[in-house]
Amino acid sequence: MHHIVLERWSRGASALHARDPRAKIVPLLVFLTALATARRALPEFSAVLFLLLCAALLGARIPLLAALARAALVLPFAAVFAAVCWLSGDPARGVAVALKSYLSALAVLTLVATTPLPALLRGLEAMRVPLFLLTVAQFLYRYLFVISEEAQHMSKAAAARGAPVRPMASSGARFRAAAGALAVLFARSYGRARDVHRAMLARGFTGRLPTLYDLRFRPADAAFAALASLAPLAARLAVERIG
Amino acid sequence: MVSIVHIPDGFLSTPVWATLDVAAFPAVGYMARRAQRGFDDARIPLLGVMGAFVFAAQMINFPVGIGTSAHLLGAALLACTLGPAAASVTMAAILAIQALVFQDGGILALGPNVINMAIAGVLAGYLPFYLWGGGRWRTAAIFAGGVLSALVSAVLALAELMLSGVRMPAAILGVSLALFLAAAVLEGAITVAVIGALEKIQPNFIRQPRAGRPWALGAAALAGLLLATVGVLFASAAPDGIQRLGRQTGIAERAKALFSTPFADYQAAFFQAGWERKAAGGLAGIAIVYAACLIAGRAAARKRRP
Description:
Distance between the termini of chain A: 44 Å
Number of strands of chain B: 2
Structural class of chain A: mainly alpha
Radius of gyration of chain A: 23 Å
Oligomer: heterodimer
Largest sheet of chain A: none
CATH class of chain B: Mainly Alpha
CATH topology of chain B: Arp2/3 complex 21 kDa subunit ARPC3
Number of domains of chain A: 2
Order of helices and strands of chain A: HHHHHHHHHHH
Strand content of chain B: under 5%
Helix content of chain A: over 70%
Number of strands of chain A: 0
Strand order of the largest sheet of chain B: 1-2
CATH architecture of chain B: Orthogonal Bundle
Order of helices and strands of chain B: HHEEHHHHHHHHHH
Structural class of chain B: mainly alpha
Largest sheet of chain B: 2 strands, antiparallel
Helix content of chain B: over 70%
Number of helices of chain B: 12
């Protein structure tokens, strides 16, 4: 599964990995906003941003081609949208959308590939995102693969019992069978959630996940945040001045 | 089928994403507080694991016709089992993880996506069940909830895209609306089938709303929701019409003042005149749907408390 790749990347040891999550979240937001509001000289600006992101990824020793391919997940969506724009006689907008969505996805990927998710959520908590939501997201991520594998086991078991025998069953019967499978998955997930809850209560859980380390915002983090936030802004000013 | 409900970054214009981000933050905070009330903090794992369930549920494909398949989106199912506030928080967490880890939907576009699915989608999915889930029309109510949740999410997403200045040819617009409608009907059918199967396994998974809510009130709420949804779509397709209407009633001026103040300087610098007025008209429409959903949800939550 491709999630394991991201887990491995985010546990690397580079200067970028070592930064406080907040020192990476703020520049990401600046980057995304600068990109989203850019109108003039967009291709040149995109090229500069692309080089910046590539430099960051190389600096963090993340396989560049694999990361570029992963960010391309947004392109099918963007392609459909660009085609619609083309048909309605606005090809420039289609190109802009494709550039912006790809670069935004690559920027988010750069953050997530250099920050383990628990640390990222801690950073968001320090930035006043509701703790309740973050804790739910944290549990969601932890159990995502458990439940997904359960779903895969179930569909494999169904296939082993000859589920896709098309002439045998009517469409309605197969529809009901799929609904039954989903209901069983729901019941199992619910049961597992209850077990997890009880096990955590037994270990003194109060609704807050303890962490093994505290966030510390060092001078190096401040310097990095300032530089990384200024870079896209400076690039935009320079490109628009020339263009 | 291309899903347009996860909008990536770069698709929406700045006033649209910024406004909806600003709106989404307090909405999610409100839903989180509402879900926490009467809900032991230590039960948070339950919501997380149910969010993971929705992810996994999208792997189970339902056969539809010959060679095509569909899967559950889950807003209505979560609302009928966890209640609207907890379902909203769960959906918001799902969207956040999808945007961060799976590059599915943008970060700046998280606010719009949360409004479309976690707030409006969940509340629209819960409304019919809340109104008629206790009576004879239970199955129909669950079906309507599934249809409405998928339809409201998709129509809001489409409206936001069009507000951002995408001009869709009428043919493409018609085709996408037909696809949305088909997907919404499927969502309704799948939700009914899954809830039916769930009740056979363990009846107490599904909430039991009180029977005998007033018909007229419910019909009015539902009609209002449908009208607002259709209205938003038309408003964003032809902002000039609603602008004229708004000028007569004075709504647009107020809405414009309300919506454009945070970006006043910004728009002067970046956008040509006339553009923001169109957006304000359409955004006012979205705000009306949003407010309608929030009020309906608040009323639902208040009545449910003993």
